[in-house]
């Protein structure tokens, strides 16, 4: 009788393959470079090549005492990149990967809304004349401009939308 | 930068000993020397000088107006019509004078470059050689991002950081209370005297960051000193002898202020406060800074710092019997707003 060889370990192999694939996907989603839209992904925006990433224990090197509140509610990593709008306005974009959507919400809600607009973006967003803050799932994104410009708020929103599409829940 | 450590450890220890004897180990001793009213009334003077037109119609303060504002503040502080008199009293021509700025929040909320330029000009007028003026902070990256041009040119003002080649932190471990730390060689060895140039900010951990908290930029482990609203760590670090003996003056940058969301730059929580605050008592100036931030929070309709659990308790601790770094008692602060 001809026997078909079916390895006993096949369920294990399948499980391993699935796990590796999932890990690879997760790895890709968490790669800092993949988070930040390239130059031209939103009209008028160019990105500097350097992307800096900080583990929780390094976060104070970047944001000083602000790090405490992120660490307290659970931050897994922080990545930051510099952009320019129309080659003039300097903007810093920070992406915080929090431990959970609830942690991202805690930070978002801790900041007074003041006179913010509330655009439809991610799970919640606030748009100001010089900055945009939004959250989506476990991600919290902050964009801060160092100069003012009448065109800036809609441009920030464009860049925010380009970035938001890269965030997995 | 290879000659950054001009002084040996023996010189450094000698300086500390001399400083402790001559300065009474306290910036208040200097204050009594240069500010007659402080001596007469046992009060600390704080001068808040403002220029409502400082920013004109732009986003940056005008350099010429900053120079005039600085002169006005210093002349008022020293009761003198001579804009250079106080600088000459505080700093001798052969001294190396450090200017500790605060640049962690980038270009939107760091000590303004134009203010530092104005201070350098006045120091030069007082006889300090350009290369004996050292503008510094923790890292080259932060200085650069805040708009400072790094320089180790021997003919110019030095702009360097503790992470510049050949600088680093002193190997000596300094400790007081909960603080056990290494200090920048720029403080312990390079400079004879210091000017503290903080920027007016709310701080999500400490409540307020101004003169006393700016010392978290002179040591190697500030990340370990943020527990318990940075208290008593901020007061304790200011007790370390190089800080107590070398810092002679605070010129607080209150041209832009941050009333919420600090210490990082969040433009929606900043305002043009159009001022400079000058003092030699770091506690009195921080108490004044706290009051200014509270007034702005009330004006913008957000809760006070005590209401959100962010009392800057380190200010009172810095004034207590154990620390005696200055006074937080409004009755013992002569506040002049001009």
State the CATH architecture of chain A.
3-Layer(aba) Sandwich
What is the total number of structural domains of chain B?
1
Main sheet properties of chain B: 10 strands, mixed
Give the rounded overall mean pLDDT of chain B. Answer: 89
Q: What do these coordinates show?
A:
The complex is a heterodimer of chains A (169) and B (338). In chain A, 36% of the residues lie in helices and 28% in strands. A six-stranded antiparallel beta sheet of chain A has the order 1-2-3-6-5-4. Chain A has six helices and six strands; from the N terminus they run H-H-E-H-H-E-E-H-E-E-E-H. Chain A has 169 residues and is of the alpha+beta class. The termini of chain A are far apart. By secondary structure, chain B is of the alpha/beta class. In chain B, the strands form two sheets. In chain B, strands 1, 2, 3, 4, 7, 8, 9, 10, 11 and 12 form a ten-stranded mixed beta sheet that branches. A two-stranded antiparallel ribbon of chain B has the order 5-6. In chain B, 55% of the residues are buried. Chain B has one domain (9-337): LarA, N-terminal domain (Rossmann fold, 3-Layer(aba) Sandwich), CATH 3.40.50. In chain B, 34% of the residues lie in helices and 20% in strands. The longest helix of chain B is centred in the C-terminal third of the chain and has 18 residues, at 282-299. Chain B has helices at residues 9-23, 27-34, 36-41, 63-78, 85-90, 113-125, 140-145, 185-190, 227-230, 233-237, 241-246, 282-299, 314-319; strands at residues 44-50, 97-101, 133-137, 158-161, 174-176, 179-181, 193-197, 199-203, 207-209, 247-258, 270-279, 333-337. At the A-B interface, helix 3, helix 4 and strand 6 of A face loops of B.
């Amino acid at each position: 009788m001809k026997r078909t060889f079916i390895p006993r370990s096949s369920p294990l192999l399948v499980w391993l393959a699935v796990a590796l694939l999932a890990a690879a996907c997760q790895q890709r989603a968490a790669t800092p470079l993949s988070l930040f839209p390239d130059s031209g992904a939103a009209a008028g925006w160019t990105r500097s090549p350097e992307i800096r990433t900080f583990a929780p224990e390094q976060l104070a090197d970047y944001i000083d005492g602000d790090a405490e509140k992120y660490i307290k509610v659970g931050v897994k990593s922080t990545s930051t990149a510099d952009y320019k709008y129309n080659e003039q306005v300097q903007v810093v974009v920070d992406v915080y990967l929090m431990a959970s959507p609830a942690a991202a919400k805690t930070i978002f809600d801790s900041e007074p809304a003041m006179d913010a607009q509330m655009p439809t973006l991610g799970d919640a967003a606030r748009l100001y004349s010089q900055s945009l803050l939004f959250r989506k799932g476990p991600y919290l994104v902050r964009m801060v401009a160092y100069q003012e410009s009448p065109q800036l708020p809609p441009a920030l929103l464009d860049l925010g939308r380009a970035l938001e599409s890269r965030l997995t829940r | 930068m290879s000659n950054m450590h001009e002084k040996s450890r023996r010189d450094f220890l000698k300086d500390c000993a001399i400083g402790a004897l001559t300065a009474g180990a306290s910036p208040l001793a200097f204050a009594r020397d240069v500010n007659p009213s402080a001596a007469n009334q046992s009060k600390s003077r704080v001068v808040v000088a403002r220029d409502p037109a400082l920013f004109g119609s732009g986003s940056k303060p005008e350099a010429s107006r900053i120079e005039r504002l600085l002169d006005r503040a210093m002349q008022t502080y020293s009761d003198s019509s001579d804009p250079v008199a106080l600088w000459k009293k505080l700093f001798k021509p052969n001294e190396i004078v450090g200017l500790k700025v605060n640049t962690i929040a980038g270009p939107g909320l760091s000590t303004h470059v134009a203010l530092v330029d104005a201070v350098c000009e006045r120091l030069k007028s007082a006889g300090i050689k350009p290369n004996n003026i050292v503008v510094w902070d923790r890292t080259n990256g932060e200085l650069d991002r805040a708009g400072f041009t790094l320089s180790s040119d021997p003919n110019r003002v030095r702009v360097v950081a503790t992470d510049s080649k050949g600088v680093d932190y002193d190997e000596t471990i300094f400790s007081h209370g909960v603080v056990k730390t290494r200090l920048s060689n720029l403080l312990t060895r390079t400079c004879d005297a210091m000017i503290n140039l903080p920027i007016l900010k709310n701080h999500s951990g400490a409540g307020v960051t101004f003169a006393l908290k700016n010392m978290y930029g002179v040591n190697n482990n500030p990340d370990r000193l943020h527990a318990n609203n940075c208290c008593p760590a901020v007061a304790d670090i200011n007790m370390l002898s190089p800080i107590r003996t070398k810092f002679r003056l605070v010129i607080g940058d209150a041209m832009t202020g941050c009333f919420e969301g600090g210490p990082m730059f969040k433009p929606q929580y900043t305002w043009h406060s159009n001022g400079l605050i000058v003092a030699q008592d770091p506690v009195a100036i921080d108490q004044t800074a706290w009051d200014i931030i509270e007034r702005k929070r009330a004006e913008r309709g957000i809760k006070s710092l005590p209401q959100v659990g962010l009392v800057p308790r380190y200010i009172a601790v810095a004034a207590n019997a154990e620390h005696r770094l200055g006074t937080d008692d409004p009755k013992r602060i002569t506040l002049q707003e001009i």
